[in-house]
Amino acid sequence: MSKVNTEERFAVHPDAYERFTMAELRKHFLVADLFQPDSLNLTYTHYDRFVLGGAMPVSGPLELVAPNQFKAAHFLARRELGIINVGGAGRVIVNGESIALDYKEALYIGCGDHTVVFESAFAAEPAKFYLNSTPAHQAFPVRKVSRADADIVQMGSLETSNARAINKLLVNSVLPTCQLQMGMTELQPGSVWNTMPCHTHSRRMEAYFYFEVPEDQAICHFMGPADQTRHLWLANEQAAVSPPWSIHSGAGTSNYVFIWGMAGENLDYGDMDHITPTMLASGGCTHE
Ligand SMILES: O=C(O)C(=O)C[C@H](O)C(=O)CO
Ligand SMILES: [Zn+2]
């Protein structure tokens, strides 16, 4: 039987957020422990019922089981799932079919009463499967997505310290999903800013999972409405949950990679309300 640790996070109103202490901000928006050997660690958020988590099989296979909160016999009975491997080589076995998933490769599994089992190729270098799951109403096929299949956009420049590649992996220009969108943004050496200029999208929530952060470095993740920004300091392999009223942007003390995942009513990646650095500097006025 797999060990499942589930934490539930209720949605926060922006008026309440404004009064939070740093400890309260971290309690509500930081997800610190995603990977634990031989466990499935899940955070069930009430933002579009988006679940983020990690599965790290070490001493044997780890089965994806529905936590009590789902009140379902199968994890995917009413949900779809996106998986990106951020650890050693591994495989995901879906209804008995083994799909190899190497570092930074993604897998989509549509809803249905599937059995899903995670395995590492080598216990000494375990796979780490980062998971995002959202409610789903239609069963789309299982599909592996590697960098060669991704929709890749180069953004920013070294001059503005935000040169980065946005790898759109599980998005509607690559494969059909109900509402889940997932991708991975890689910062070039010397660039530290992600998602700057920043944006909001009130039709979708988002979660950012940071990795490849050197051990002695950290990420400063910015959140909040444009006129009420706050920051959260994050270490490697930690995530921040971004409510639909919040910007989501970060600066690292080095370059790094992060996985973004979204859920909501609109699959249009470009459907954003943009906020420039000068708008932030003027106190968050959202028109120039
Ligand atoms: O670096 C970026 O810019 C991003 O990766 C932006 C995210 O993809 C995003 O916020 C999508 O809404
Ligand atoms: Zn966004």
Spell out the blueprint of helices and strands:
Layout: E1 3-9, H1 14-18, H2 22-29, E2 30-31, E3 39-45, E4 51-55, E5 62-63, E6 79-85, E7 90-94, E8 97-101, E9 106-109, E10 116-120, E11 129-135, E12 143-145, E13 151-155, E14 164-170, E15 181-187, E16 193-194, E17 198-200, E18 204-211, E19 219-224, E20 230-234, E21 238-242, E22 247-252, E23 257-264, E24 273-275, H3 277-281
Parallel strand pairs: 1-3
Antiparallel strand pairs: 2-21, 3-4, 4-11, 5-10, 6-9, 6-11, 7-8, 7-10, 9-12, 13-14, 14-15, 15-23, 16-22, 17-24, 18-21, 18-23, 19-20, 19-22
Bound molecules: the ligand O=C(O)C(=O)C[C@H](O)C(=O)CO and zinc ion.
The ligand O=C(O)C(=O)C[C@H](O)C(=O)CO binds at residues 155, 164, 166, 183, 185, 194-195, 201, 206, 248, 260.
Attribute tags:
single chain, 288 residues, mainly beta, 7-stranded mixed sheet, globular, binds the ligand O=C(O)C(=O)C[C@H](O)C(=O)CO, binds zinc ion
